[in-house]
Design a protein that fits this description.
Blueprint: E1 4-10, E2 12-15, H1 19-24, E3 28-31, E4 35-41, E5 47-51, H2 52-55, E6 60-64, E7 70-72, E8 74-79, E9 84-88, E10 110-115, E11 123-134, E12 144-147, E13 159-161, E14 167-174, E15 185-189, H3 190-203, E16 209-210, E17 213-216, H4 220-225, E18 235-240, H5 245-249, E19 256-260, E20 263-264, H6 268-276, E21 283-290, E22 293-300, E23 302-303
Antiparallel strand pairs: 1-4, 1-6, 2-3, 4-5, 5-9, 6-7, 8-9, 10-11, 10-13, 11-12, 12-15, 13-14, 14-15, 16-23, 17-18, 18-19, 19-20, 19-21, 21-22
Length: 307
């Protein structure tokens, strides 16, 4: 598949040659063994999506195309929050894959993973989407697709595609107690990839949005104390930050956010994902529960001060 590339990231480390050098702080830079990974072309101009952990800290990044070309890649931008990186290579004749709509992906849907496990280029494995919205397996990415398509070292950064050849996710990691694939793999949904790609191409960085609330899970005991029926969805707000969009919208500590922009909120992660998907300046309707009564407020989403 000409759109999928192999990535070699060369890193350096400082070493002390002897005790004299160590005492006086004299170091020598040496190359570490190259990090191998995968990537995928997403534009005819040579833009490539991969994982940040594939190229993080690299001195040199080389891209191996299936036609035999080896090109030096420029890192256009990275986003530690999503573990994604956008590279750019110069040349012609690039064949990109289309980014699909990950919101339309269904559990049980057949998918294909393409990459370079252990340096074996253009390896294809097949599986299904085992689950959507997996959380808690990474300190960075909010939600993953889970798949049983075989993913091994070197697959990271390669595409997970549907049977129409569209990218629905970027392969990221596996869950294993032995270091190898055991049937549980995770991939970053394509709508997250699209947002990161568009931001980096336009601004050179990812512009994160914020609402400005601190949340707590809506546990059974908390729901009971608030007089809510068991199993009611939502997230409890215990702090609203000064100057935030939430503060300006009139959201208060003690409120329960039950929907954001017409979509149900189940916990802090789902709320954060919904906020992340909005644009700076976008007005959204937020449904809250206050004093056992539903209330609708409108917030104008702003750029996060940490961006």
């Amino acid at each position: 598949m000409p759109s999928v590339v192999s990535i070699t990231a060369v890193q350096q480390a400082a070493v002390f040659n002897d005790s004299f050098s160590k005492f006086f702080g004299v170091t020598t830079l040496v190359e570490l063994p190259p990090q191998l990974g995968s990537g995928v072309m997403v534009s005819q101009e040579g833009h490539i999506v991969t994982n940040l952990h594939v190229i993080g800290g690299a001195l040199v990044v080389r891209v191996h195309l299936n036609d035999g070309r080896i090109l030096s890649a420029k890192v256009l931008g990275t986003d530690p929050f999503t573990d994604l990186a956008i590279l750019k290579v110069r040349g012609a004749g690039f064949i990109p894959l289309e980014l699909g709509n990950s919101d339309e992906v269904r559990v049980g849907q057949a998918v294909i993973a393409v990459g370079n496990p252990y340096g074996l280029q253009e390896t294809v494995t097949q599986g299904i989407i085992s689950a959507k919205g997996r959380r808690g397996f990474s300190e960075t990415v909010n939600e993953f697709f889970q798949t049983d398509a075989a993913i091994n070292p070197g697959n990271s950064g390669g595409p997970l595609i549907d049977l129409d050849g569209r990218i629905i996710a970027i392969n990221n990691s596996i869950l294993s107690d032995k270091g190898g694939w055991q049937g549980i793999s995770f991939a970053i949904p394509s709508n997250t990839v699209r947002r990161v790609f568009n931001d980096i191409r336009a601004h050179g960085r990812v512009v994160h949005t914020w609402l400005g609330v601190l949340t707590a899970p809506l546990t059974a005991s908390l729901s009971a104390s608030l007089g809510m029926p068991p199993g009611h969805h939502g997230v409890f707000i215990y702090r609203v930050l000064q100057g935030s969009p939430a503060k300006q919208a009139g959201i208060r500590p003690g409120d329960i956010i039950i929907s954001f922009d017409g979509k149900n909120v189940y916990d802090g992660v789902s709320l954060r994902n919904l906020v992340t998907e909005t644009q700076v300046g976008q007005k959204v309707s937020i449904k809250i529960l206050r004093d056992r009564s539903e209330k609708q407020v409108e917030a104008t989403i702003e750029k996060s001060p940490k961006t």
